[in-house]
């Protein structure tokens, strides 16, 4: 039999008021949303969401379970008092409970196994709350051709099941009406991506049986009085309904309803993602009132090739939107997140006029460009569906209606002001952990909860629930963005920033450089005097012949004489080089490691470069190797001294801290000159709650080459423990603290490498650590 669906539901969301709809049309997405962030110079005058806590749900696992066992948080809901959050965990076949009474300190309240209530393969796909009861929809299908499911009603007080309903098919999402008279469940009966229907290709529609909507009349208060009603989306013989055929849906005999949302007039909106359509249902009567197609979008100015180059000159043409989540905005308009499935995905979200079925507004390229400007570029997805907006939620806070749109592949949530329903105004980006799926506004507590579905203990990517609170002042994220400012043109693409350098002669500016995650290599100018810091310019690095080149640049030093030195890490020892560029970014000199040193290196080599120039113009480079060279003492890593005039290397030793965590290692990530000392970053390989070592140490700056023989280990002094600074973001503690420098004005800055959103959350943390006097005790 085919395997059961692993991930079923979409985001459980709060919705605003809305009403019915009409037919469809094809609309090209032009994009009208501005791409700025809240002005930081107006603290206290605007409300903004700020992250308060990130709770990894593996910490809420049953006692005795291996912490590495996959466990996720997909869809979430909340109790009536807003203090108990309930999330689905399809991988572990259970639902989890969190106490969020204190938004800064969520507390695990344990889990409830659904396999104990049914079969070992039963999966929760969505969840919501009605008064004292938790309603959990469960996929019990043995295979794609025999879909089945149930609705479990769980008493929240003691977590006992008080009733269960047979749903007659494989369920996806659930929504509750504002008056709590109705529940609506999308019965998807999803397609098998490996099946080939007659006359079609693998994964095509139609694939019987067709899906439908199951309604639950929540009458009489107690679940004993509740009753179910089916809203068929096909005729009894399986043929297509006239309304679906007339709307021009892809395969009307196989509607596959995906997501449901109810307005305060008891009108239900149902997305048919694979069919690129929306159905509207009157809940009291169960009558289909309108069906319309979601149309297609033509979007220009996006990255369409997964070639490592952030290139916003591509286009997608007449692509079906294939909406996933839907949320009513008001009496007339509804919003869709156009993730796409097998044929489409417009890389944005849309607002539909329910009276005409036409698009009233479309994000065009602006949603994807948010990922670029905020450093969340998942270039690996460029040739597919880009940011993949999957979830959308709408809710009102303090009289302002907001839309929240989640990017499944770039790990962020965009917030918009919907005061004018057809003219969304972008407000801010919220960073999430990997695969944000459930978007749960909790207006009564001024909170937004985002649950993320990606979990892989082997790379320390763990599913989490993140909380954000609406309040006054400037949010802590972002710490760095790229130009242009509000209303500008194409933003500078960036990410994987693992190095920093001061800009000679410009006391307030910095340089950074992209590593091998992107190509070609680019040197970026950073203005840290604004908050967030701004990436204001880019310089493409070129080979000696002038062609763009991709270096794995892990260190950068801007020379007072002009040009740059890059520390380039190779895939093997011999690939490690120091590369000198001229001021135009063209390669002018390559310095290789001595053969005997290169032979002792694995894949971790150069991680930083800095330099001194004496009064006679003699330039000396200092480079840090990340890990030990084979044959050197255990726990001692090399600091290399290269005399540019004589072309000779000599080596000093640096003793690393130790770790007992399996799979962990300690290494260096940066080196920079601070007065008469060298400052280095020493860090572990851990992230999230496991992160332990993220520190800046200093050692003396030797003025002469090291003597031959055994490595002379330079005594080190702790200058600054950066771990508390990273924890203070209330997010997922980043692993790769990799950039450090002192600007010309004496300010100390550090930055994390976001690994280009690969096995990482994608968040970049730019840190302002204070003056060199404060951090290093430097005297001027």
Automatic annotation (TrEMBL):
InterPro entries: Choice_anch_I, Mesenchyme-surface_protein, Phytase-like_dom, Quino_amine_DH_bsu, WD40/YVTN_repeat-like_dom_sf. Residues 345-427 form the Choice-of-anchor I domain. It comes from the Bacteria. Keywords: Signal. Residues 1-23 form the signal peptide. PANTHER family: MESENCHYME-SPECIFIC CELL SURFACE GLYCOPROTEIN (PTHR46928). This is Esterase-like activity of phytase family protein. It comes from Plantactinospora sonchi.
